Every structure is written in C-alpha cells, then in structure tokens.
Amino acid sequence: MSVTISDQTLLVEKEIESVKAEQTKSDRLEFYSGQKELLLTYILKILGLLYLIVYIILVISIVMKRQNIGLFMAIILIMFFGVFPFIVDYVARYAYYRWLDFVHYIYAGNAIYLYQPPK
User: Fold this and answer.
1) Alpha carbon 34 to its chain's center
2) Contact 48, 85 (CB under 8 A)
3) 20 to 30 A Cα–Cα from 8, which one of 23, 33, 69, 99?
4) How confident is the model at residue 108 (pLDDT cuts 50, 70, 90)?
5) Which CA distances in Å does 118 have to 87, 115?
6) 110 vs 104: CA distance, rounded Å
7) How far is it, in rounded angstroms, from Cα 48 to Cα 56?
8) pLDDT at 100 over 70
9) ∠ CA(104), CA(108), CA(112), 5° rounding?
10) Positive/negative CA dihedral, 103, 105, 110, 113
11) With bands split at pLDDT 50, 70 and 90, how would you rate the model's confidence at 116?
12) C-alpha distance across the termini of the chain, in Å
C-alpha cells in the first residue's frame, strides 16, 4: 500500500484546520471569560454604590431618631454598618483562598493520603 503525496497533503490540511478550529474556540472562551470578569466588576461597583446610598439613608435616619435609641447605640450602629461590607469581603476572600489551598492540596497528588482503601 503506497501513500501518495496528495493523501499526505490532505491529512496535513485536515490537521491544520483542526488546530485552527481549536484556536478559534480558545479565543472565544478567553473573550467570554474577559466579558464575564468585566460584568462582575460592574456588578460589584453597582452594589457598592447601592450600599453607600442605603448606608447614607440609614445614618440620616439614625441621627434623626437618636433620642429614641440613644447616642451610644446610634454610634455603634453607624460604625457596625460602616465596616460591615469590609468584614464580609475579608471573610469571603479568606474562605476563597482556603478553598483554593484545599483544592491545590488535592490536585498536588496528596489525595492518596485521604483515601482509605476498603477492607
């Protein structure tokens, strides 16, 4: 059985088309990933602005009703809701990085120590 040059050329062209298709798919995935990150950034900024507006309304209402709740409690509430988003952000980042450490531990080949063979 002999292989002709035209058969080899067809195989090479087919492989080139396959590589081009994979590259196009990879480019699209990168573009969509970038779009997703951009959308998440906008959502984060909008939620931050919304929280700021709600916080300002809360501070105004607490200051107006400070006789009913007391000055000390008003200050505590204003301070708590002022640092609350930063606390949530810190805890979320901490939990995310601990999760990444755990996944890295599993994928690093140390999962064999977690596996207990059946007896």
Assistant:
1) 12
2) yes
3) 23
4) low
5) 44, 9
6) 9
7) 12
8) yes
9) 115
10) negative
11) low
12) 55
Residue 50 and residue 85: Cα distance in Å, rounded? 12
Q: What does the block give as tokens for 27?
A: 């480019």
C-beta atoms surrounding 58 within 10 Å: 15
- How many whole angstroms separate alpha carbon 60 and alpha carbon 65? 9
pLDDT in tens, 6-63: 878 888 888 888 888 888 877 777 878 788 888 888 998 999 899 999 999 999 999 8
Residues 77, 62 contacting (CB under 8 angstroms): yes
- How far is 95 from 93, CA to CA, in rounded Å? 5
Structure tokens at 111: 């999962």
pTM: 0.57
The pLDDT of residue 68 is above 60: yes
Asked whether 69 and 62 are in contact (CB, 8 A), the reply is: yes
The structure tokens 């059946």 sit at 118
